[in-house]
Design a protein that fits this description.
The structure holds three protein chains of three kinds. By secondary structure, chain A is an all-alpha fold. Chain A has 20 helices and two strands.
């Protein structure tokens, strides 16, 4: 009985976790609730993934109303993979959250933080699981509102400013998305992704449709921080509580990328988009600009959290690059990078969060020699950094391998060259942090510090280990991504 | 007359577009955080119109099934927009809440004044 | 004695009617325009009017802040819980037909009724909470 309801259970469990956390005043109790909820969500997600692997696409009718009238939750390989990423990261971070949140947030804010954390997870999973365009918008706003609040709970007064700026940008993005969906609704009269795809296929590709595509692309582009719509991201990531940053950096943009892929491949149909307006070429140019520009900015950034945030913008560039090439191999690269980037950015932000926990700052100047006093933490950072560069033996290599192969398949050798060249810039920004942390003499302040507590280390090490493990043996992640890419190309939604 | 006719026929869309652009302009052009939020609200409201106006069917009635009636208005946009209104209210409330807190810690809600304070800190 | 006697008396006269109207909108939602959302806002407006006339602390004696904060998640829980009940009755999430075995339509009616109660609780308490949060600032 439970197996049949798994698609809705993975949304309900974090939602109820959020509600129960909101009922309690004590941070520790809320943490316990959130821990149980995330573990249950992860278990349900794995069960769901098993089902999808076994039976293929799963469709669930909310309220027993058959689609396209009712809202349908539809799970295929692509969203099963995305949900797995969100659920795994949310669970892995939980042991870290306990200590980090207790230090960074006032006692009366902790329970609210976990409420927002769980709401954000529920929203992100909801976006991924739903097969209804408007339902996706509602979940997008649920996760976004929770995110704004989570950022505003940050330590400095600038957190409020960042949250406000993100609220303005995020709302504009979400509104652009529903404008696009509204136009599609007016053209086709439906909101269900499958039904939309079927009706769009037989509708002449006119200006209204193109306008809808433009609005949706810009709207989701704002959410996934596509260059040049990324300006909200560095501040938001840098000033949120460390736990929140780790969750957002490794999941939020990924889900938005997924939504864009879904709309492009399964709603408009990628062959339709390839038509007379150079949408994919535009995305290609923007993603290359992101890879170079954002990496370049990261090299000169003094605040390590902001440095990693700019690196995220660059990494989103790689994901969109795979999408814009629109071949099966390239899409596999994008999807595997969703998972890989979640691991490496998760590990990097957790490591920096641990430094912030001990040192109280994440500026490069004050991090001198921190590697010598916190070897495990900074060791994990080095592994994550190597992954960001794409060194063989780490997950970053796997993603870039697929992208480079896809570029060669298309005969675009210059693109392969650019992917490698942009990776070289990553060497500089990662190198700067590594140099300061390991090769500079520890300051008096840093020399007094000790290694971070175990509960902070465990999740960090786990994610860093995953970076290496899936870098050496990518059969699981790449296999899932390949199956997902095939599902998207098969149009079997 | 031939020129005006197509414009009048789509007058609902013209209003939508006017509100949309006006709202977006206020968000971009104003430095006052409250005014930005008002612009944002206007922007969101224009979308309600975009959904609702095509849902009206001339001569149609409220969609409650009755034997005597054959033409109904489309209820779906209303339901969708009810949801969107709730989302809009929540966003506005959170935005205003943030502005109140920003006013408490910065002593102003003008963006340029806040940025000067930020620059002094750095 | 302050000189706003008229306002105070009129407010006191209006309050019961506002609350009755709120419950009318709430329970008459089946047959006419209305429902938990509108009713919740009207009920919250009644309390906010009371707070405007008689002060925040007077309103907080009627509906304390802690209660409001608990009611917000509770209302959502009533809503989502109704859906979960149908899960346990071997139907899909939010399929209210399961609530009554012999008369699915009655099940729908009860389901929507319970959901609207949840919406009422959440919306009214959210409105009040927002008012308390802003009204209580800087005192």
């Amino acid at each position: 009985m439970i197996a049949h309801h798994l698609p809705v259970i993975i949304v309900l469990v974090p939602l109820f976790g959020a509600l129960l956390s909101a009922l309690t005043k004590r941070g520790a109790v809320a943490w316990g609730i959130a821990l149980i909820a995330t573990v249950l969500t992860l278990a349900a997600t794995i069960g769901l993934l098993g089902h999808v692997l076994h039976d293929g696409v799963i469709s669930y009718e909310i309220g027993g109303w058959a689609p396209p009238i009712g809202i349908e939750y539809r799970v295929d390989m692509a969203n099963a993979l995305v949900i797995l990423i969100v659920a795994t990261i949310a669970t892995v971070i939980m042991p870290y959250a306990r200590v980090s949140v207790a230090k960074e947030l006032a006692a009366d804010q902790q329970a609210w933080f976990y409420t927002m954390y769980m709401l954000c997870v529920a929203g992100l999973i909801g976006i991924a699981v739903t097969g209804d365009a408007f339902n996706a918008f509602v979940f997008l706003e649920v996760s976004s509102l929770a995110t704004y609040t989570m950022i505003a709970l940050g330590q400095s007064r600038r957190s409020l400013l960042s949250a406000y700026q993100y609220l303005i940008m995020g709302t504009i993005g979400a509104t652009f998305y529903i404008i696009g969906i509204g136009l599609l609704l007016t053209i086709t009269g439906t909101l269900n992704f499958v039904d939309l795809a079927a009706r769009i296929a037989v509708t002449p590709y006119d200006r209204a449709m193109l306008t809808a595509l433009a609005f949706i692309t810009v709207g989701i582009g704002l959410k996934l921080a596509l260059f040049p719509l990324h300006v909200w991201l560095p501040n938001a990531y840098a000033r949120a509580p460390s736990t929140g940053t780790a969750l957002l950096a490794s999941t939020a943009t990924k889900v938005a990328v997924y939504l864009l892929i879904r709309v492009y491949f399964n709603v408009f149909g990628i062959s339709n988009i390839v038509g007379d307006v150079p949408v994919l070429e535009l995305l290609l140019v923007l993603s290359i600009a992101a890879m170079f520009f954002a990496s370049f900015v990261a090299v000169f950034e003094k605040n390590v959290k902001r440095l990693l945030a700019y690196s995220s913008v660059a990494q989103v560039g790689y994901m969109i690059l795979g999408l814009s090439m629109a071949t099966s191999t390239a899409l596999t690269g994008t999807l595997v990078h969703l998972a890989n980037h979640a691991m490496m950015k998760g590990a990097a932000f957790l490591a920096i969060g641990a430094v912030s926990y001990q040192l109280g700052s994440v500026s490069l100047e004050r991090m001198k020699g921190i590697g010598r006093v916190m070897p495990v933490t900074m060791g994990c950072f080095v592994v994550a950094g190597l992954s960001l560069i794409g060194v063989p033996g780490t997950v970053g290599f796997i993603s870039k391998y697929y992208l480079v192969v896809a570029a060669f398949e298309k005969g675009w050798w210059w693109l392969a060259f650019m992917i490698v060249a942009s990776s070289l810039i990553a060497v500089f920004y990662v190198g700067r942090v590594v140099e300061v942390a390991w090769f500079a003499e520890p300051s008096k302040e840093a020399a007094k510090l000790k290694e971070a507590p175990l509960s902070l280390l465990l999740p960090t090490v786990a994610l860093a280990a995953a970076c290496v493990f899936f870098g050496v043996d990518a059969s699981l992640t790449a296999g899932l991504a390949e199956a997902a890419a095939n599902a998207l190309f098969g149009g079997s939604l | 007359m031939e020129v005006i006719q197509p414009i009048l026929a789509h007058f609902n869309h013209w209003i939508t577009i006017f509100l949309l652009v006006a709202g977006l302009y206020v968000v971009v052009a104003r430095g006052n955080m409250i005014k930005k939020l008002i612009g944002l609200s206007l922007f969101q409201t224009s979308v309600y119109l975009l959904y609702i106006s095509p849902g009206k069917i001339f001569g149609g009635t409220a969609p409650i099934i009755d034997d005597k009636i054959e033409v109904y208005s489309n209820p779906l946009p209303h339901v969708l927009i009810l949801t969107a209104i709730v989302v809009g209210v929540a966003t506005l409330a959170l935005g205003l809440g943030l502005v109140v807190r920003i006013n408490e810690v910065y002593g102003t809600i003008e963006e340029d004044e806040i940025f000067t304070q930020e620059d002094d800190e750095e | 004695m302050r000189l706003d006697v008229v306002l105070r008396v009129v407010t006191k006269l209006m309050l019961p009617f506002m609350l009755v109207f709120a419950s009318y909108v709430q329970f008459h939602g089946d047959y006419g325009p209305g429902g938990g959302f509108q009713a919740g806002v009207i009920a919250a407006a009644a309390l906010i009017l009371y707070a405007l006339m008689f002060g925040l602390s007077a309103a907080q004696r009627v509906v304390p802040t802690w209660l409001v904060e608990k009611l917000i998640p509770l209302g959502v829980m009533i809503y989502a819980g109704t859906g979960v009940v149908s899960l346990f009755l071997h139907e899909n999430f939010l399929n209210y037909s399961a609530l009554s075995h012999h008369h699915p339509v009655h099940g729908q009616e009860w389901g929507v009724f319970t959901v609207e109660v949840g919406v009422f609780v959440t919306v009214s308490s959210t409105m009040i909470a927002i008012f308390y949060a802003f009204g209580g600032r800087g005192r």
